[in-house]
Amino acid sequence: MRVSDSQARTRVPAGVKTIAFAVAIFICVLAGSLPTRMQAQSRLATAGVYSSGQAQRGAADYKARCAKCHGAQLEGLAGPPLAGADFLNIWKSQPLSDLYGKVHITMPLDSPGTLTPAQSTALVAYILQGNKFPAGGADLPSDEPALKLIALAPAGTPAAPRTAAAAVSFPAVGTLNQVMRGILFPSSNVLFDVQTQDPGASEKAGAKAGAATTSVRYGNVYGPWIGVDVAAIAIAESAPLLMTPGRRCENGKPVPVDRADWQMYVQGLVEAGRVAYKASQSRSQDAVSEATNQIADSCANCHRVYRDVANPAMRCTPPAP
Ligand code: HEC
Ligand code: HEC
Question: How far is CA 123 from CA 64, 100, 107, 204, 209, in A?
Answer without folding.
Answer: 11, 9, 11, 26, 25
